[in-house]
Amino acid sequence: MKKLTLQLIYTFLVRWFLKLFVGVKFDDSSFLVEEKQFIILANHNSHLDTMSLMASLPRSLVHKVKPVAALDHFGKTKFQERMSNFFINTLLIPRKRDKENPANDPIHKMIQALDNGYSLILFPEGTRGEPEQEQPLKPGIGLVLSQRPDVKFVPAYMKGMGKSMPKGDNLILPYNASLTYGKATHVQSTKVGEILSQLEEIYLDLKNKTDGHDAP
Amino acid sequence: MKEIFHLKFIDNNDLLIVVALIFGILTFASLLFFFMGLLKPNAKLKELKDRTKSWWIMATIVIGAIIFNTKISYIAIAFLSFVAFRELYSMLGFRQSDRRAIFWAILSIPIQYYLAYIGWYGAFIIFIPVVMFLLLPMRLVLKGNTDGITKSMSILHWSLMLTVFGLSHMAYLLSLPPIDGVNIDGRELLLFLVFLTEINDVLQFTWGKLFGKYKVIPKVSPNKTWEGLIGGLVCTTGVGYLLIFLTPFTVPQVLVVSFLIALSGFIGDIVMSSIKRDIGVKDTGTTIPGHGGILDRIDSLAYTAPTFFHLVYFIIY
Question: Which of A6, A81, B210, B305 could be joined to B169 by an S-S link, Cβ 3.0–4.6 Å?
Answer without folding.
Answer: B305
